[in-house]
Amino acid sequence: QVQLVESGGGLVQAGGSLRLSCEASGRTVSTSDPRTRLMGWFRQAPGKQREFVAAIYRTTGDSYYTDSVKGRFTISRSSAQNTMYLQMNSLKPEDTAVYFCAAGYGVGNPNNPDRYDYWGQGTQVTISS
After folding, report:
1. Between vectors from CA 83 to CA 5 and to CA 79, what angle results, nearest 5°?
2. How far apart are CA 55 and CA 62, in angstroms?
């Protein structure tokens, strides 16, 4: 089984920054584990559907972003590749949501939540105006 643990959420003022982390762990997880070939961030605001934020392929580093965060958010992974980060700058009140880390085999469109097999519990991000 793959466990994903997020950290780094919190409350900041608009214009501020936060860095989210997601660590993948489990008895058989390794840097070449295909189950976590693709890792991504999704978010869900109150009363709204879960939406794609960003994704990265662990081995190639190829990354993808939703339009609303391009130029403000940066997704990356550690050299050991078992930890993923989301650096969020120039935060806006509309970025307020619970942010979820997800992992999957990387088949299909990386912005489709159905392509992910493992999910973290989420971390709250609140941006005050």
Report:
1. 170
2. 8
User: Integer distance in angstroms from the first to the last C-alpha of the chain?
Assistant: 40
Q: Which two tokens stand for residue 15?
A: 């214009």
Output the average pLDDT for the chain: 92
Beta bridge partners of 104: 38
Asked if the model's pLDDT at residue 28 lies above 70, the reply is no
Task: Give the DSSP H/E element, type plus range, for residue 24.
Answer: strand 18-25
Pair of tokens at residue 61: 């580093």
Q: What are phi and psi of 114, to 5 degrees?
A: -70, -15
Instruction: For residues 94-112, give the mean pLDDT.
Output: 94
Q: Which residue has the tokens 């580093």?
A: 61
pLDDT of the residue at 34: 87
Q: What is the phi/psi pair of residue 18, to 5°?
A: -145, 155
Neighbours of 17 (CB within 10 A): 11
Q: How far apart are CA 97 and CA 114, in angstroms?
A: 20
- The pLDDT tens digits for 49-86 are 999 999 999 888 899 999 999 999 999 988 777 889 99
